[in-house]
TrEMBL record:
Pfam families: F420_oxidored, P5CR_dimer. Pathway: Amino-acid biosynthesis; L-proline biosynthesis; L-proline from L-glutamate 5-semialdehyde: step 1/1. This is Pyrroline-5-carboxylate reductase. The lineage of its organism: Archaea, Methanobacteriati, Methanobacteriota, Stenosarchaea group, Halobacteria. Catalyzes the reduction of 1-pyrroline-5-carboxylate (PCA) to L-proline. Residues 4-90 form the Pyrroline-5-carboxylate reductase catalytic N-terminal domain. GO terms for biological process: L-proline biosynthetic process. The gene is proC. Its EC number is 1.5.1.2. Keywords: Amino-acid biosynthesis, Cytoplasm, NADP, Oxidoreductase, Proline biosynthesis.
Length: 257
């Protein structure tokens, strides 16, 4: 059984631990200096405040803020037969490779790792089979050139927040027209879940899928006409672009350290 340790048990590190624990395929260690963070994941992993203990794993995931990622890697000793996975936004593999003997793999995951529905991007030039298996166990992933990590950070890393925003807008519309709040929440969220699954399973492009829902003179085409006449798509593109810009800024700040 592959051993995985996660250093940094905040939102993303905790989500990854919960998803991996549910898969049942790993022995897990969680490392954090904050007792409350350790307590939040003690059901899923052995916990420690000692990075040296966490370093004794096949895969060591560094899930800390970008500005301390280097310091964390400097504090742990890894060998060439281990893998270091970094999920710190803006911190390149090159920034860490000289600080460790381990293979460095950069991953941009998202919080849906907790439910094993994660979307992730991983550096195609360094990804190992063990990391591929780990990512497979908590969702879907794509191999990309590291130069594209900033846009991946915006699309799948920040993307859940944008989707939550849209789900809530649909929930609000339902409530304003009389639906119970919880009923509207379930209908909106499940609709996004089902639509996403349809996109992943279908060979059709998204425009064709939209057309399939839009009967002539029906309800959907009326709503789509409103969206097509609006700037909704541009707002989403702008949100993704803003997140991408910030990822690049973090990378520049990281390079200056």
């Amino acid at each position: 059984m592959t051993s995985v340790s996660v250093i940094g048990c905040g939102n993303m590190g905790g989500a990854l631990l919960r998803g991996l624990a549910e898969s049942g395929n790993y022995t897990l260690t969680a490392c954090d200096l904050d007792p409350e963070a350790r307590e939040a994941v003690e059901e899923y992993a052995e916990t420690t405040d000692d990075p040296a203990v966490a370093a004794d794993a096949d895969i060591v995931v560094v899930a800390v803020k970008p500005h301390i990622a280097r310091d964390v890697v400097d504090d742990i000793e890894l060998s060439s037969d281990q893998t270091l996975v970094t999920i710190a936004a803006g911190v390149s593999t090159d920034a860490l490779a000289d600080r460790t003997d381990a293979t460095v793999v950069r991953v941009m995951p998202n919080l849906a790792a907790e439910t094993r529905n994660m979307a992730a991007a991983v550096t195609e030039s360094t990804v190992t089979d063990d990391v591929r298996s780990m990512l497979d166990d908590v969702g879907e992933f794509v191999d990309i050139d590291e130069e594209l990590m900033d846009i991946a950070t915006a699309v799948n890393g920040s993307g859940p927040a944008f989707v939550f925003y849209l789900i809530d807008a649909m929930r609000q519309a339902g409530v304003e027209s009389g639906l119970d709040d919880e009923d509207a929440r379930v209908l909106a969220a499940q609709t996004f879940k089902g639509a996403a699954e349809t996109v992943l399973r279908s060979d059709e492009d998204i425009e064709t899928l939209i057309d399939a829902v839009c009967s002539p003179n029906g309800t959907t085409i009326e709503g789509m006409d409103v969206l097509w006449d609006s700037d909704a798509d541009e707002a989403v593109v702008d949100a993704v672009a803003a997140a991408e810009r910030r990822s690049k800024e973090l990378a520049d700040e990281s390079d200056d350290e």
